[in-house]
Amino acid sequence: MVYFPSLGSYNDRDGINVEAFISLAPCRRETVFFTMAEPFIKVENLFYSYEVPSMEPIPALVDISLRIMPGEFLAIVGHNGSGKSTLAKCISGLLTPTQGQVSVLGLNTRQPANQRQIRAAVGLVLQNPDNQFVAAVVEEEVAFGAENLGIPQDSLRRRVDQALLDTGLQQERYANPHNLSAGLKSRLAIAGILAIAPQCLILDESTALLDPLSRASLLLMLHELHRSGLAIVTITHYMDEVIDTDRVIVLDAGKLVIEGSPRQVFQQEARLREIGLDLPPVGQIARGLRTRGLDIGYPLTVEELIQAHQEHKYD
Amino acid sequence: MASLEGLRHVSIGQYLPTGSFVHRLDARLKLAACVALLAALLLARGYLVNIALLIAIIGLVTAARLPLSYLLASLKPALPFIVILTVMQLLFYGRGTGGSAVWVEWGSLVISAEGVQLVVVSLIRFIGLLLCVSLLTNTTTSSALTHGVEWWLRPLTAIGLPGHELALVLAIALRFLPILGEELEAIGQAQASRTITTGTVSRWHFMAGARRIANLIVPLFVSTLRRADELALAMQARCYQGGKGRTQLNPSNWRTADTFAALVAVAVLAVVIILRHFPIP
Ligand SMILES: Nc1ncnc2c1ncn2[C@@H]1O[C@H](COP(=O)(O)OP(=O)(O)OP(=O)(O)O)[C@@H](O)[C@H]1O
Ligand SMILES: [Mg+2]
After folding, report:
1. What letter would DSSP give residue B70?
2. CB of B143 less than 8 A from some CB of A
3. What pairs with residue A102 in β-bridges?
4. What is the DSSP letter of B101?
């Protein structure tokens, strides 16, 4: 299954403090898992409140502790306003915690001197690609982040080509970002982050505005990037996107309320419903069958449903 | 709200890659040449020189392979104002100073040859100005434009002003024009559907008009601030920390063609200035 070439050419980490990246140099997931016991991102008792003039501060995150391992595929879910975007911004150092610590590669996000390295290591793709474009040409848009890092011109060119290739945007190289379709805009926002060669990609609802087909192809791309060694944190409202991740965390009113594998999380149906979240489509079908007395278990994918159906003894 | 229609098609500030030689010219040169042409337009006297300049600019647009109708579409939203201004100027200019020929006289309304010339020349200047600026932005990428402006602002940078930042703000602001146009259109439509505007009855009523504009401007202002905020975050997320230590994907390089074009621009400006001293119609 090689849809996209490996991310080899991002590995020239010129212009960035090399020591900080040495520990992660072999970007292969297997290696990473066996050699790296150390988490890549550490969040400890994080509180964040938005300061609003002449009002009480709005608490957006309350006592969150979290570890993200290199090469992990993590999903963050929660209803609107539960603090998902705020958490993503805290992790990438765009917001400084009100209380508690966030560190990336051992670098504390509170230190202004660490910001550049942290943002280069944790690539955050924000919501609403429309409001993010600075350039009038796709390839210059992709290059923006890498230009900021001072990557020399020849490796800059290589990175941009690679990012365009990885996101399937080669055809649109000279197009105007503003004129792209929603699906391609999301891809472009991701390409711009890939070109800064992060070790972790955080996607804030990148699939929210897409039609089913663009969504499927974007997901395929994410899994391909993940396979090449990138850690991925995806924030989403679609439960079916969560099924094949390594780990899920559920936020509710700024608190981390459930954490575990997708299977573990989706078994807490009642709890999820309390929070206002639903199961993925297959889980909903299974729930319907269970309430009608068919003991079908907790399948999450169509394959599991078929298997459960075949094993089921109808007596 | 018909005048809001088509705002999204504003071509000024856009970029349209056609791969022409004008696109390949150095941004620093294009900036300077644009300023020179604008100066020439403002300094030119009489019909002939102005028309010659407009033809030259249209020639450049053609050479850049930009559709003229696309560039002129920017005029559409402003068309009602232009027509009103033109008519007023024509009617109320009066006899002029030089005792020029009077073509129509009807009570206090006088249309003189001088008045007509002023109106026509103003129109040509306005169109020329629009084409010039559109030509610049449509043939220059944001990044090249930023670096071009930054280069010209170097004296300011030398005395401690943020030249790069100013240049970037300018380039981004240009690209946001059509987005803001779209937004204005959307707000207008949303309000029309909720009938915040009250149809034709109060159309000519000044207070109603003012309120209608406020109804549009306030949400536009709010959404623009929000967008600017998000853009700033997105730039920070991509490690933007000002112009220091940045590299460039497509660095500009000055070629012979640029020197040649610069000479032509200077020559045009010089000829226009010299011609001011001759009585040309
Ligand atoms: N800039 C801000 N100023 C004040 N309050 C804010 C700001 N941004 C977010 N909030 C508040 O913080 C809380 C968490 O917001 P956040 O954007 O993190 O939620 P979210 O889970 O990403 O929601 P969504 O699914 O809508 O994107 C919300 O109550 C929101 O109103
Ligand atoms: Mg959000």
Report:
1. H
2. yes
3. A43
4. P
Distance A188 CA to ligand 1 centre (A): 24
* Residue B122 token pair: 């103003």
Whole-number Å distance between alpha carbons of A27 and A37: 15
3-class secondary structure, A211: coil
- Residue B147: phi and psi, rounded to 5, are -70, -35
In angstroms, what separates the C-alpha of B91 from chain A's closest C-alpha? 44
C-alpha to C-alpha distances, A201 to A219, A232, B178, nearest whole angstrom:
13, 5, 31
The interaxial angle of helices B113-139 and B79-92, nearest 10 deg, is 160
Rounded to whole angstroms, the maximal C-alpha distance in chain B is 69
Tokens 């409001």 correspond to: A131
Q: Using a CB–CB cutoff of 8 Å, tell me whether B249 touches chain A.
A: yes
Q: pLDDT tens for chain B, 281 residues: list them.
A: 344 555 566 777 788 888 899 999 999 999 999 999 999 998 888 888 899 999 999 999 999 999 998 888 888 777 888 888 888 877 777 666 666 677 777 777 777 777 788 888 888 999 999 999 999 999 998 889 988 998 999 898 888 888 888 898 888 888 777 778 778 888 878 877 776 554 455 445 666 667 777 777 888 888 888 888 889 999 999 999 888 888 888 887 888 888 899 999 999 999 988 888 877 66
Ligand 1 atom closest to Cα of A79?
25
Encoding tokens for residue B271?
Answer: 């000829």
Report the SS3 class of residue A182: helix
Indicate if ligand 1 lies below 6 Å from the C-beta of A5. Answer: no
* CA A27 – CA A6 distance, rounded (Å): 10
Q: Which ranges in chain A belong to alpha helices (H)?
A: 19-22, 29-35, 84-91, 115-121, 138-148, 153-166, 182-194, 212-227, 262-267, 269-275, 281-291, 302-311
Model-level pTM? 0.82
